[in-house]
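Ticket #171: bound-state structure for MU-OXO-diiron.
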Amino acid sequence: MLNNKIQDAINAQINAEFYSAYLYLSMSAHFESAGLPGIANWFRVQFQEEQAHATIFMNYVHQRGGRVTLAAIDAVPTSWESAAEAFKDTLEHEQKVTALINGIYALAIEENDYATRDRLNWFVNEQVEEEDNCRQLIDKLALVGDNGMGLYMIDRELATRTYVAPSALAE
Ligand code: FEO
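RESOLUTION: The complex was predicted; output attached.
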């Protein structure tokens, strides 16, 4: 059985994951309208990943005999000056998410909740990967700068990203 402090923290994290999903869906819609369908695709896959993250936490709460309570999702921004700005915002957002995951991890240590620590290890690694992917894209976009052909090539590359359900979803 989950203790209330851990349950509350995970429920807050479920909300944060859905906020992330909503944010990336908004970015996807923005870039679809801005004539960059590959970047729109990349953010649509990111949206799907965030929904999976929320679902993994929901499954975990249920596995531990807890109760999921879904709260309202805050409004998200709806436009960005450039792809570079959107990826910079994404990295900053993911760094905040990493801090939230670390906060629940610290709480799980404090509460001697070893199962939650174990579940969170997957998220700790996922955050390293997400931040790294984002940094690489920021570097690429910085390299092309205002070059339209460079942006076109990056957009084509990001169009190839496909969603793969994380293994943790089946656990
Ligand atoms: Fe669910 Fe992007 O971390």
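RESOLUTION NOTES: The longest helix spans residues 114-144.
TICKET STATUS: resolved
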